[in-house]
Amino acid sequence: MKLDDYNAFCGALAHTSHVVQWGNANVWKVASKVFAIGGWQDEGEQLYVTFKVSEMSFDLLKETPGCRLAPYLASRVLKWIQRTSVESMDDEGLKDYLRESYRLVSLGLTKKKQRELGLNQD
Q1: pLDDT tens by residue, 54-91
Q2: pLDDT value of residue 44
Q3: Strands lying side by side in the sheet with 48-52
Q4: What is the C-alpha separation between 30 and 118, in angstroms, rounded?
Q5: In the predicted model, what is the mean pLDDT of the chain?
Q6: Is residue 116 a part of any domain in this protein?
Q7: What is the CATH number of the domain that holds 79?
């Protein structure tokens, strides 16, 4: 996934905002809470994308080629993975994980904020 594709995908999700920080990383947030971080690749290389996952996905992906524990985040016992290559996860799979990261992070918002934004009202 190229940076423009990553930014377009994350930007299409409801109530998201974008900021460039942490060493030129493209950080995406839902209601000010981070759900995706993209960056740290050399010119022409695969974009590294970091995202929050469930406990089960964390256990699966941490041993998957092309994925690793997210630097800084996973060391704090948080369930975040970084995709570094398409070796075991293509871009469509990455989009699925980004959607799930968005959902998991939005569930951490207050119930009031979720209602205000119309999130998780199923």
Answers
A1: 999 999 999 999 999 998 786 676 899 999 999 889 99
A2: 60
A3: 16-21, 25-30, 33-39, 48-52, 80-83, 67-69
A4: 12
A5: 91
A6: no
A7: 3.90.1150.30
